[in-house]
Design a protein that fits this description.
By secondary structure, the chain is α/β, with parallel strands linked by helices. It has helices at about 1-15, 20-35, 80-85, 135-140, 160-165, 200-210, 250-265, 285-300, 315-330, 330-345, 350-370, 395-400, 405-410, 440-450, and strands spanning about 15-20, 50, 90-95, 145-150, 165-170, 190-195, 240, 270-275, 375-380, 415-425, 430-435. The two termini are about 30 Å apart. The protein binds glutamine. Glutamine (GLN) binds near residues 102, 154 and 156. The site of glutamine (GLN) has 13 residues, from loops. InterPro entries: Amidase, Amidase_CS, Amidase_dom, AS_sf, GatA.
């Protein structure tokens, strides 16, 4: 009830929730109370969560931030949310996001931008909470839920976490089931939590992850107790610092934060190792070929017939498809679908898509080549603090640069966490990222907790 009251007061300003499921929340909370009273409570009993509107929730509208899916009420539950409810969590509502998770500022949402509860000292400008999980990050930072689900295709958990002073982790590809998650780029998409603390992130992630035969890329591996890694000494761990992550035009404050992180881990007994990930500079162009290509294939299902928006006025079957898609999809989604269709088209497939897959392999091999020398890698989460709403909308390429530190782990399938680690000169939060080996979230949580 306390969270619902806060949401009612703050959401008209922040726009973090697209739907508040107050009655459902109270029903779930009462059922949770009853389970606790009878001594059968689960690990998340009664925890009030916000759910990114990308996860299908049975009987509750799921839009993925798009007019295309306005009014779509899924008849089934995503595996990730079903796991959370199994452990006793309570749903407060559905959270705003960039349309189909395409964006870094939450400005591509059909429901309007989300505001960051943080403001820079001496300025009243509204800031972005980042994207695409902007609603999740803003809601957690503003105490409009205890924690939230989010998804990360190229940084959409970690970048908003960094912009709002919260914790966000993307697990190893295949840890969390994609069943019931609205697809963006299937070989990159992973679910994860945004939370206040590293310990909460461990608790939530171990509930969200499970083997699922409804997702053909789900990994049949046990989910460890990651909370056991939180607070464990990092003494003796070898931490890699990749020299290629020093990017052109990186603000001095970001370099200073990174140096500070290195110093903290050194003090805690880690060995710092300079490493090279030589194909890093190709990661953004590779991502912005692979992700749109997969999106153009995935989003072909929105044809105005089986799902979502259907145009009222049309002259032929082809025109029905075209008009429904032109009306239902926003500008950024249309841009991605156009790029995707182009790089997959017969004349350009080898030159762009196949080439990108080869470079993707090189990027993954860069990581494979350093795991003999290091146990985890430390980088900044983002190349800047939260920027003003409206600032980067004019230029999509500048917007894409936001993902420079995060897309590599999606391309390689590795786990990565963003942990709040300091503030910039305007008092805005900044995040550090810890990247781990495949399936080694334990070390990621261990190092992340040491930076907290
Ligand atoms: N900002 C990136 C994009 O726009 C990543 C989005 C995401 O991780 N869902 O594609």
């Amino acid at each position: 009830q306390a969270f619902l009251t806060s949401v009612e007061a703050a959401n008209p300003t922040l726009n973090a929730y697209v739907e508040v499921t107050a009655d459902k929340a109270m029903d779930m909370a009462r059922a949770s109370d009853a389970r606790i009273a009878s001594g059968e409570g689960g690990a998340l009993e009664g925890a009030p969560l916000g759910i990114k509107d990308l996860f299908c929730t049975e009987g509750v509208q799921t839009t993925a931030g798009s007019n295309m899916l306005r009014g779509f009420v899924p008849p089934y539950e995503s595996t990730v949310t079903a796991n959370l409810w199994r452990d006793g969590a309570v749903m407060l509502g559905k959270l705003n996001m960039d349309e189909f998770a395409m964006g870094s500022s939450n400005e591509t949402s059909a429901f309007g931008p989300v505001k960051n509860p943080w403001k820079s000292t001496g300025s009243n400008a509204d800031l972005t909470p980042g994207g695409s999980s902007g609603g999740s990050a803003s809601a957690v930072a503003a105490d409009l839920c205890l924690a939230a689900t989010a998804s990360d295709t190229g940084g959409s958990i970690r970048q908003p976490a960094a912009f709002t002073g919260t914790v966000g982790i993307k697990p190893t590809y295949g840890r969390a089931s994609r069943f019931g998650m609205v697809a963006f780029a299937s070989s990159l998409d992973q679910a994860g939590p945004i939370t206040k603390t590293v310990e909460d992130a461990a608790l939530l992630l171990q509930s969200m992850c499970s083997f699922d035969d409804k997702d053909s890329t789900s990994l049949d591996v046990p989910t460890p107790d990651w909370t056991a890694s939180v607070g464990k000494s990092v003494k003796g761990l070898r931490i890699g610092v990749p020299r290629e992550y020093v990017v052109d035009g990186m603000p001095a404050e970001i370099q200073a934060l990174w140096d500070q992180g290195v110093a903290w881990l050194k003090d805690a007994g880690c060995e710092i190792v300079e490493i090279s990930l030589p194909h890093t500079k190709y990661a953004l162009p590779t991502y912005y070929i692979v992700a749109p290509a997969e999106a153009s294939s995935n989003l072909a299902r929105y044809d105005g017939m089986r799902f979502g928006h259907r145009a009222d006025q049309f002259s032929s079957l082809d025109d029905l498809y075209a008009t429904s898609r032109a009306e239902g999809f926003g500008k950024e989604v249309q841009r991605r679908l156009t790029i995707g269709a182009y790089v997959l088209s017969a004349g350009f497939y080898d030159a762009y898509y196949v080439r990108a897959l080869k470079v993707r392999r090189r990027i993954a091999e860069d990581f494979d080549n350093v795991w003999g020398q290091v146990d985890a890698i430390l980088t900044p989460s983002t190349p800047s603090a939260a920027f003003a709403l409206g600032d980067k909308q004019i230029d999509p390429l500048t917007m894409y640069l936001n993902d420079v530190f995060t897309v590599t782990t999606n391309l390689a399938g590795l786990p990565g966490i963003s942990v709040p680690a300091g503030v910039d000169s305007g008092g805005l939060p900044l995040g550090l990222q810890v990247i781990g080996k495949a399936l080694d979230e334990a070390t990621v949580f261990q190092v992340g907790a040491a930076l907290e």
